[in-house]
Amino acid sequence: MKILVINAGSSSLKYQLMDPDTGDVFAKGLCERIGIDGRLTHRVPAKDIKVVREIPMPTHSEAMTAVLDILVDEVNGVVKSVDEIDAVGHRVLHGGAKFTASCRIDDACKEAIRECIPLGPLHNPANLMGIEACQKIMPTKPQVAVFDTAFHMTMPPKAYRYAIPDEYYENDSLRRYGFHGTSHRYIADRVAKLMGRTDLKVINCHLGNGSSLCAIKDCKCQDTSMGLGPLAGVPMGTRAGDVDTTVAQFIANKYNKSIDEVLTIFNKKSGVLALSGGLSSDFRDLEAGAAEGNEKCKLALEKFCYEVKKYIGAYAAALGGLDVLVFTAGVGENGANTRAAVCEGLEFLGVKLDPEKNAQRGDERIISAPDSKVTVWVIPTNEELVIAQDTAELSK
Ligand code: AMP
After folding, report:
1. Is the dihedral of CA 8, 14, 18, 22 positive or negative?
2. Whether residue 89 has its Cβ less than 6 Å from ligand 1
3. 280 CB near ligand 1 (under 6 Å)
4. Which residue has the CA at smallest separation from atom 9 of ligand 1?
5. Which of 183, 196, 250, 345 has its CA at a distance of 20 to 30 angstroms from the CA of residue 140?
6. Which CATH architecture does the domain made up of 197-378 adopt?
């Protein structure tokens, strides 16, 4: 089977054509600057092909047309005709409490995604544009929506409720939803396979440009660090993570800013970017800066690792123990120093890293010492594979 996986943003559209059974990626790429001018970057991993084309993309429709054109292109394409694509899977940010699993897209599903726009105002409209562009160009292909929030819907009320007046939950659905659910679900299933059992207490650290932790018991989410939106939890590349709301009130009042303006600061100008004095949101730059003695870079890295460590402690307590600790995503998979700093001092929980294994690069691997009570893994995440598998399943 060949499944086209689409991740549409407000001015971008990422795609991967893949085999849901083997995980092989036939082609992948990115449309950027949709609504501005338009650029397509297309790769065929097996043939080492990389093509960059400037193509006018006034809307997501032209972007989708450009994607299909290059997929069937005689030189750079990977299929003879669009007929070879069996179905399309869409990453959708917010499914509210309604979507506990992926769903085949029909009018009711689209309406439900639309109803979640107040909860995901930046992403859900863009996701819908991607869906509608595909429906327009490939009206007969099955389409499936895979939600970033769905995996977290097993959280108990004590984890997802905010301690604010009831009416905001009852009338407005304000609660913790959590994100990166497709990644956390991939890791939960992968850990069960690798460990040969499902009855495990797992903490997954998805540490990338956006970061979230997830407490998982018996392959089900018990708690997660992001909330109503993806701003909560640990500090991230440019997002503040948990901040006392009084800080927002102070900034708004003193600097005469609207709450939207304050949240833009918390979303785009905060996190490790802010702590490094505006130097960079990229952990490689921060590590280079810290190695040269830059105190702000050191603080940014220390703060990040400290907050991740605190969440691990909290989730170990919430789970009543810990069997497996996982690091995934850009920083989690590649940042050996970050992993070491996070795990340092967690010996009391039974976490003991093997420094040599931690320093080695590679794919899926155990990085804990043989006598560590907790097994620590590095597992590259694969959200696209989960989307492709759900799409294949729901297209039958
Ligand atoms: P993601 O959002 O999962 O794509 O992760 C992107 C982030 O991974 C980048 O912002 C980098 O900070 C980080 N990253 C990538 N490679 C490395 C590396 N070798 N060491 C530390 N951080 C890295």
Report:
1. negative
2. no
3. no
4. 282
5. 183
6. 2-Layer Sandwich (3.30)
| Mutation pick for ligand 1 pocket among 182, 226, 282 (CB with most ligand atoms within 8 Å) | 282
**181 ligand 1 Cβ < 6 A:** no
Return the domain boundaries, the chain. 3-147, 197-378
Question: One of 19, 73, 107, 148 is an active-site residue; which one?
Answer: 148
CA dist 169 and 150 (Å) reads: 18
Structure token digits, residue 64: 């989708």
Catalytic-residue membership of 148: yes
> For residues 118 and 109, what is the distance between their CA atoms, to the nearest angstrom?
16
Just give the CATH number of 3-147: 3.30.420.40
Does the beta carbon of 284 sit less than 6 angstroms from any atom of ligand 1? yes
The side-by-side arrangement of strands in the sheet containing 211-217 is 220-224, 211-217, 201-207, 324-328, 375-378, 365-366
Fold match flag (3-147 vs 197-378): yes
